[in-house]
Amino acid sequence: MDAGQIRQVRHFNRAVTRRIGVLTDDYLGRGRSLGEARVLFEIGRDGANVRDLRVRLLLDSGYLSRLLRALEKQGLATLRRADDDGRMRRATLTRKGLRELDALDRRSQDFAASLLAPLGGPQRERMIAAMGEVERLMRASMVTIDPVDPGSADARACIEAYFRELDARFETGFDSTRSTSADPGELVPPAGLFLIARLDGQPVGCGAMKVKGRRLGEIKRMWVAPSTRGLGIAQRLLAALEKYAVEIGLDKLQLDTNRTLREARALYARNGYVEVPPYNTNPYADHWFEKRGLRQRKSGRVEKKPRRIRSPANQSPTGC
Amino acid sequence: MDAGQIRQVRHFNRAVTRRIGVLTDDYLGRGRSLGEARVLFEIGRDGANVRDLRVRLLLDSGYLSRLLRALEKQGLATLRRADDDGRMRRATLTRKGLRELDALDRRSQDFAASLLAPLGGPQRERMIAAMGEVERLMRASMVTIDPVDPGSADARACIEAYFRELDARFETGFDSTRSTSADPGELVPPAGLFLIARLDGQPVGCGAMKVKGRRLGEIKRMWVAPSTRGLGIAQRLLAALEKYAVEIGLDKLQLDTNRTLREARALYARNGYVEVPPYNTNPYADHWFEKRGLRQRKSGRVEKKPRRIRSPANQSPTGC
DNA sequence: TCCATTGTCTGACTATAGTCAGACAATGGA
DNA sequence: TCCATTGTCTGACTATAGTCAGACAATGGA
């Protein structure tokens, strides 16, 4: 990443926070503190348990309690015991509270509209497209990749989703018991590695590697949730697996894949995997790949720590 | 603008403020209040007059005075009388203050880098491009268009820049005294109209119309500053002139232009102006255009008030 | 039945970000 | 020389957003 890119991001941050800061201050503020507005929004049309409000808004329980009391005093919300657990309290908006929520919603919509209104049709469409892109990529940059126990709930959820998808996509369907094995025990160091990708705490992808010899490993279980494809998550999973393989001294990685998984084949080809003759009898495999000389090459792409770049530029601190 | 577009903008606002909010809170906060950090940034490497700080940061003079005192007490800034005006005070950063500014700068840069770091090369480039696009279009949406006295300083600055540009672009150069007239007096209602486009208070474009008959007007002085081209400003100026023309009962608009001004010709063609035989002897004109039936057509594009769209969606108030 | 845990609330704080009136000094034309 | 204006500062406030310890009630296994 170069200094010009960093500069663009800082400019963007500044421009956007300036413009959107107006929203928080002027639009939503109107006579109500931001804290109260946030709680009102979060209670929403269906009501919410106080506990959930606390978690979602990351508020101190004492502070939240007082904000709720303030809403109650203004006749915007009511609190009663939750039906299922007497310790919990459930907040619901009164009719007046709902009207207030409508008003907030409208102001927020007006603000969004005011950003688009001065633009012409073509500019407006470009704006929408660019905003969508930034949003998607910001989400992508929030995806974390970590090794987990393949027996954990998150890992099992990914594997099940993976199998379900294979079953749907393979012409013959998919039965995991007929496929080549990869028991959870095989995917824990030193026998292997299981990585999970998460977004906002939710699992959105996985990838595993199984050690098959002193220098040889096999890539398994590469899967990314449909909702988060196109964000480069599979690429990051693969890079992380390769990095680990190099660390434990492997030199060659192999994998098999089904003809219906085109994206996967493209990913492997892009990363220097070459097609080889079948090395197993997996009935679901149509293509076999391997990548040699892992330790020689500066493996494809490794995640780096952000580099610090000094610049004499003087930047405003609000969103720089 | 449709409901889907509004929804995209709101999603964007929420996603971006969440992510960038982290910056303001965590990155820049570190042991110093946001207010102090902002003042430190704004004083900058060259120092600044207190008065300018007040204007640029929109701070109450009492509040700013206290913030400066706090910085002084921490040994980060010094204050002394301004050389040129004994009422004003000039703030400069001490060596320690400069080090602090470096640290803030670095944190801000790290934050920008942390947004890009998890992305792969292609994603990173797409992010930069999309951010640039959003920023440009947000700037575009902040451009205001207002009628002004063509004799005002801003108007004169635009006209001079316009003449300078014509002089540079025309093969023969440009001498305003040889061109067809448009004295300031002719561009004030009811004889005409002079519009100015401004961004952050700075003039960035102009456009004028001269009434030539009961039903006929002529477009003059269409110019947009090079730094803000491609934002649809000329389109908006033209639409605003046409709207005014319709309001005062004109039915036909004419204009002439030089062959070197290709963008202008494209703009007019796009807006329904058709080329006609010369209607004057302006030595700098190579093309003559007119648009008839202004009052019949729902003139090209008119700026509308944002429409309110109700939706049951429940949205978080922080950047929605 | 006991008791650790969970969820909520209250009281007592603090820091930040401001607002407003009025004092005071310097300035720059009339 | 006068005096309105400009720029800064001080004192006296306020609202918001929070933190933290401890009280209390309900829950759900051991």
Describe this structure in words.
With 320 residues, chain A is of the alpha+beta class. Chain A has 2 domains: 3-118, Winged helix-like DNA-binding domain superfamily/Winged helix DNA-binding domain (Arc Repressor Mutant, subunit A), CATH 1.10.10; 144-291, Gcn5-related N-acetyltransferase (GNAT) (Aminopeptidase, 3-Layer(aba) Sandwich), CATH 3.40.630. Chain A is built from 9 helices and 10 strands. A 7-stranded mixed sheet of chain A has the order 4-5-6-7-8-10-9, with helices on both faces. In chain A, a hairpin with a 7-residue loop joins strand 2 (77-81) and strand 3 (89-93). In chain A, helix 2 packs across helix 4. The longest helix of chain A has 25 residues, at 3-27. Mean pLDDT of chain A is 83; it is low at 299-320. The interface between A and B is large, with 87 and 87 residues. The structure holds a DNA duplex (30 and 30 nucleotides).
Which terms summarize this structure?
homodimer, Arc Repressor Mutant, subunit A, 2 domains, 3-stranded antiparallel β-sheet, 18% strand, elongated, DNA-binding
